Amino acid sequence: MSEHEETGIEEPPTCESPEPMSCYLHHDPDHPMSSFSVINKMRVNIQLCDVSLRVGDSVTKAHRLVLASSSPYFYAMFNDDMAEKLQSEVELHDVDLGALQLLIEYSYTGQVHITDENVQVLLPASSLLQINSVRDACCTFLMKQLHPTNCLGIRQFAETHSCNELRTRSHRYALQNFEEVVKTEEFLFLSYSEVEDLVSNDKLNVVSEEQVFVAVMDWIKHNPSERSQYIAQLLGHVRLAQMSKMFLLNVVETEPLVRSEPSCKDLLLGAMKYHLLPDQRSDFASKQTEQRSPDGLMPYIFAIGGGSLFTIHSAGECYNPRHDRWLPIAPMSKCRSRAGIVSLGKLIYAIGGYDGIVDLSSAECYDPNCNKWSAVTSLGTKRSCLGISANHGLLYVCGGFDGASCLSSVERYDPLTGVWSSCPSMTTRRRYCRVSVVDNCLYALGGFDSTNYQSTVERYDPRMSKWMTVPAMSSRRSSCAVATLDDMLYCVGGNDGTMCMSSGERLNVRRNAWEPIATMQCRRATHDMVELDGGLLVLGGNDSNSSLHSTERYDPRINRWTMSTPMPTRRSSVGAALLYCFNMDGKLTAAAAAGGSAILSGGVAMVTAGSGTASVTSSPYKSTATSV
């Protein structure tokens, strides 16, 4: 035992050489800020300042090094062979004093307050001094301030100062909010080229071309002595063919400025021919007959009507494929099963159908902008189980059932006139037939003629006003689903008289021959199908045992069906349509919150078997039984 152990005293550590340290980095993250804070105080107290900036009679002192570090403009001034390099005082031109002082302070602090009052001088000053971070911040500020009353002024301001992104955003805003923009004084003071830039744009967002015509005339009449010379050029950008015939006759044709210009008369005549010769509309196809396509439109799928067991729906649902979500829409004025549902222009049409008691001739249309249904002219004949399609602004309904017999007759509706007219009848009576358009021709497929389930197909060319037989499908199909994709006519499911089917085929129009495609995951009849994102979406129907709410998507690249998000409601004899809309999610969510269960549930007709009567209830009935 050592002496230290005996006394309880610890032995001192042995002395060893310290480990060598190659480097020790000390980092103070606050150093740049604290240093610049001191330098800024020196500027405020005019300490060690080495340059004076003169604007008019005012002089502001600063440090060359700080200015050069934040502004390429000052960097070049103080480093290149410029006269100002050695001058203690530099005079600046074309810059606002207040803006200069803000930018100098920004060079020291990295902060600047942008307001409505200073942005119009701060942006050009930051652009001149090449302080791009402030310039971009000013543009961002102005983008957030865009409003129908100022967007045109901001667009012009952006053009003046070469702010391309701001110019693009403000121009897009003006196009998107054209209806409100044309009511402002800014619009009336635009130049001809600026007005033309708006009304000629395919992205112009308008409810109707009537709005564009009125805006053009308001602009011209604000200074007719100088602007009347532009009437023909501007009217050439107004899509007259898409106006109603009554507006053309009562407003456009009677306008003195239009009547006084021969070239305007020619434009009006062309629009009238489009109205008066509906069978030849494909020959008139041009930008004048195309619908504008504003930015921000998104595809939505609408599933409308149909039923399950003894239930017939008036309600519909809307699917957003981007958010993978279904939302309820406002109910129709009538419960409709076996109706014709189609989108045309900016509306969805529900034609005919069966309400649980009788077959219907009534029709209505849905406007997604206001989530409302409105009545339109009734059919000439009651029809359920009809085929329906749209072509060149016209709506065609084919065949169906009138409550007594299967039909071969065809009717055509023109929304511009609100009139139904008769077309040549099909060669075969077809109940539960389906119709689609390929290359401006209507194809009517399958159906039931009161005796036989059909595999036959016929084509109608409006230019020839004649139906012609084309190759039949490989299978008999009634109540199938049909859609056009990449100039191919797809037909899936249906009933062949013995069972519901899952098989599908497509007509290769170029080869004039049918080709098989993959079978669906489920057997379906009385379903519907729409084109979506380069593929197909099938909705609802029944499988002989129950009404379906399931959906399937078809990818033609891999020839495969996959199950998709189901509808909230089971729907057989359903109608579906694709329509491009603005923010339907927000509108429908707000409508549901405001309307409560009335909109969420919609209306259904409860049909008592054998009673021949129907009552309306607000409670949706979801059943797994066969559809009506």
UniProtKB/TrEMBL annotation:
Keywords annotated in UniProt: Actin-binding, Kelch repeat, Repeat
Descriptive protein name: BTB domain-containing protein
Coiled coil: none
Limits of the BTB domain: 49-116
Organism: Aphis glycines (Soybean aphid)
UniProt-listed Pfam families: BACK (PF07707), BTB (PF00651), Kelch_1 (PF01344)
Record carries keyword Transferase: no
Stored InterPro entries: BACK, BTB/POZ_dom, Kelch-typ_b-propeller, Kelch_1, SKP1/BTB/POZ_sf
GO biological process, one term: protein ubiquitination
